[in-house]
Amino acid sequence: MFLLMIIGLLNAFTPQKTLEDFQDVYLVMELMDANLCQVIQMDLDHERMSYLLYQMLCGIKHLHSAGIIHRDLKPSNIVVKADCTLKILDFGLARTAGTGFMMTPYVVTRYYRAPEVILGMGYKENVDIWSVGCIMAELIRGGVLFPGTDHIDQWNKIIQQLGTPSQDFMCRLQPTVRSYVENRPRFTGYSFDILFADCMFPSDSREHQGLQASVARDLLSKMLVVDPERRISVDEALMHPYINVWYDEGEVNAPAPGPYDHSVDEREHSVEEWKELIYEEVKKYENKDNQMTNAMQNLSDGATNDTAPKEGVATGSPGQNRHR
């Protein structure tokens, strides 16, 4: 089963015929039109921006329901079609939450890295919400919100704009990190009215009361919270007035994918053992694809109507081609 907002793996194959010759793997995924890096350069109205964010949050909720934290959400890892449908991809840094697998701080492209990751505090699912907040800010401003040159500069960029965090937050830091953070100059930060002034937003929607600059700014202020204990959750974000205009129970609470079996990742394998495991997995996909091809061929041979279906054209309106 494919989840609507997560990229689907259609097939995997190798041109090599034996394990001994095995060198290459080809992964076949759904064809999309662009990634968010290109979309950021466009003038989006509130409907499209809100709908893109809704889909991101749905996809994240599905991942979290399976116990998976993406850990590397950024514009280049989110792809879209002309009809405004969206998919999350690239799970190379994703990890299963609540397992013994080490949750390393070397995750997430720097600009979208949450404070708790930068400061080595450990993290949970809402680390992905910070990244969504950074992406939303970039959609509004047309540029990166926290363009740090290294992890120290990244922290400085965050506190200069959002302010030095509370003493309660400081008390949860490791001693050496806390000493550094407390000895930095204190910043009061800027209000979100200044960081995201009305002039940065498109015109308020005439159709949906919740789709206006003040409501979008409120959502940003709840996602871009330095203290993860006070940051909005994915479920809360999906119910926010800027997002829930698109709320569909069947999409939001679609059956979760089966729990990811991380046992293979946690075992020690030699290169040759990994090669054999990957080869076996690829062959499973090839066999499944061959069975499907044969079944389709049998149906085609028995069909009496050979009229080809007409292709549809996407209109680009958000939500118009949604599956309900």
From TrEMBL:
One of its GO terms (cellular component) is cytoplasm. GO terms for molecular function: ATP binding; MAP kinase activity; protein serine kinase activity. SUPFAM superfamilies: Protein kinase-like (PK-like). It is an enzyme of class 2 (transferase). Its cofactor is Mg(2+). Its EC number is 2.7.11.24. Keywords: ATP-binding, Kinase, Magnesium, Nucleotide-binding, Phosphoprotein, Serine/threonine-protein kinase, Transferase. Residues 289-324 are annotated as: Disordered. SMART domains: S_TKc. It catalyses: L-threonyl-[protein] + ATP = O-phospho-L-threonyl-[protein] + ADP + H(+); L-seryl-[protein] + ATP = O-phospho-L-seryl-[protein] + ADP + H(+). It is found in: Cytoplasm. InterPro entries: Kinase-like_dom_sf (IPR011009), MAPK (IPR050117), MAPK_JNK (IPR008351), Prot_kinase_dom (IPR000719), Ser/Thr_kinase_AS (IPR008271). Residues 1-243 form the Protein kinase domain. Its main location: cytoplasm. Belongs to the protein kinase superfamily. CMGC Ser/Thr protein kinase family. MAP kinase subfamily. This is Stress-activated protein kinase JNK. It comes from Acanthosepion pharaonis.
